[in-house]
Amino acid sequence: MVDVDVIIVDDASTDGSAAVARTIAESDPRVSLIEHPINKRHIATYNDGLATAAGDFVVLLSADDALSP
User: Fold this and answer.
1) Which CA distances in Å does 33 have to 11, 26, 49?
2) pLDDT, tens digit, for every residue of 7-46?
3) Is residue 31 classed as helix, strand or coil in its secondary structure?
4) Considering Cα of 35, then 13, then 43, then 49, what sign does the dihedral take?
């Protein structure tokens, strides 16, 4: 089994995904959410997530990426 922590960084999305991410983070202690009040674009968003990561391994996934088993 793999111990996983998930960090969701919402970059001021306007599609309601922040509310979905908030619900997931509130119901699962392995999930945390960083919400940007304004859009900071990709690099700042990646850096905010990476600065929070504490694991030995990190996988960066964008909204249009998929992670296979």
Assistant:
1) 11, 9, 9
2) 999 999 999 999 999 999 999 999 999 999 999 999 999 9
3) strand
4) positive
